[in-house]
């Protein structure tokens, strides 16, 4: 019945609907939480006028003025912030889309369909707009991320999403996408996460999916196969997935899903040999093929799944543990959960387990809005509930370095930024944090908001750095006392790995051989934590910044942790002098961090072979126009790959790296800085270029605020080292 009442799936529009009026959208912010609202009456609109940040994010003209042309780096930084401050929200942060991945909207829309919760009408229209705009122009399919080639994962799931949202099978975009999907072999070739969503919707059979046994959660903690030892994102996705899989829950068959069964495959649904599809993954999708070990385990567990002898009491117990873990995850994050994938899966579990009238269900529905972001191309789903703290702390440091923070005319903006950093610090450990396998959080900073509440090593580090730099700026408020900075340092000191580096959310728990059981096919390095040069550097610099303000606190430990962190940085330098960056593209990003690490102990170009090799690598990649431009292909292939055009953001990273390393020749640095200045618009802004970020090697993600924070930072650093001279006539 629920499915029958789901209106949009029965609309079957074969023409593109009329979209919403962009001037009616407003962004509401509340201690970092971002939600978009559509106003309909004139009265509402009059009471809540569109702000500059609304307009900017919607692609509407903002009330920015033409600024006097900047001739020197500090003048350019000033102009940049003169524009960028128009976008600072009233709670002190900078919003921004955090899109890129193309596998998020389908999960959300499928759960809307299964649970029968209609998608808010303006959102429905704008989701359609976004997906249509993001289809690849050549073949009408979708990739795993916005710049990627069409895959079954992207194409099958987004096709389904658009159909649920109301597009008919004869809409030209649907015909084109379906043709592409069939060319790729149809939806049977979807990777595991795609198979999961299709099966949950009832348009794919559970026998066609490799098992996701919830029993793993019942294993003793010391066994690597207990998900508590995995990377936190991975375990929290397999948690709800295990529940749905174990109970083989799928939506009842309707006319609509019957039709999807006809549309998605290249042969009649009834004729598909499901068991043979378990390991069928289209080559366009495949990034990490199964190992032999994974295949063998899948066979064994599949056999177990379908024998009558299966231990029912164990399954029941495992499901109880699963529900308990889901409850803790939901409650500890105010139903935001760690990320968008487990967020909507938990919502689905809550639907089946507690029902639609439960508080849990309602809370989940409410917090969906935090992941949706409205832009000129329509409504997207963000990779987290935003990048609030992360962006604010970079911007703060950039403004201090570029001497904007001390500028009286920006004082209000800077105090607001500090206030935001202040309220974003997590002040308590999660309830039951031991039972829910959580890292301590008291004193940590998260990536997005305090409510989401996950410690991230480098976010905590950037939080410390930004706080200290702002609070040392004359005239700014003092909001965060030394006790709270000590708490943050305490968190960091629990996080160093045996290989001396720092990972993302937790120290490495399970052994790296777990990677040979990576079931996801489309991502690399997802099973355990790993150390990263980026996270390690951020922690190292945060600790050294902290020591200058509070020299005696845990002095010996900090010294030892720092000494070891540097060993890690040196250890992971490649033969050619580069470092692989895991969280943004790619070697350029990592070089900025690694060279900063070396500089922090006085290792520079002239006295350190590590530093020299790192610089020489960067210099060898400079483009003829003076900039740097690296393609996301670097992340996939582990080989430096040039972009088609140099990029402002990567140019900023590269020149910052060279300046940190005291590269002896100013010329290449000056050319980079000039490129950043030349790309600046007359109102002070920089325009969006290629996608900046990455995760799990194969999925790209947008960091639109980087073009402001890192440009301003690089300009400021240049002026500090070489003087604020006239570079552009
Ligand atoms: C992020 C975003 C921020 C990023 C940095 C802080 C930049 C990094 O230095 C540490 C790792 C972290 C926190 C990170 C981890 C993985 C995330 C959460 C993401 C890249 C954003 C989206 C991604 C998440 C896993 C997406 C959902 C997909 C799954 C595979 C579950």
Can you describe this structure?
The chain has 729 residues and is mainly α. It has helices at residues 42-47, 52-58, 73-84, 105-115, 121-134, 152-165, 172-183, 192-201, 232-246, 255-263, 292-305, 312-332, 340-354, 359-368, 388-401, 411-424, 457-471, 482-493, 533-549, 555-571, 587-600, 609-620, 633-637, 648-660, 666-678, 706-722, and strands at residues 25-30, 33-38, 372-375, 378-381, 628-630, 642-647, 693-695, 699-701. Helix 16 (411-424) runs antiparallel to helix 17 (457-471) and helix 21 runs parallel beside helix 24 (648-660). It is globular, with a radius of gyration of 25 Å. The model has no long low-confidence stretch (mean pLDDT 97). The structure holds lanosterol. Lanosterol is lined by residues 233, 237, 339, 341, 383-384, 390, 447, 456, 458-459, 504, 523, 534-535, 583, 695-696, 701.
In terms of topology, how is this protein built?
Layout: E1 25-30, E2 33-38, H1 42-47, H2 52-58, H3 73-84, H4 105-115, H5 121-134, H6 152-165, H7 172-183, H8 192-201, H9 232-246, H10 255-263, H11 292-305, H12 312-332, H13 340-354, H14 359-368, E3 372-375, E4 378-381, H15 388-401, H16 411-424, H17 457-471, H18 482-493, H19 533-549, H20 555-571, H21 587-600, H22 609-620, E5 628-630, H23 633-637, E6 642-647, H24 648-660, H25 666-678, E7 693-695, E8 699-701, H26 706-722
Antiparallel strand pairs: 1-2, 3-4, 5-6, 7-8
The protein binds lanosterol.
Lanosterol binds next to helix 9, helix 17 and helix 19.
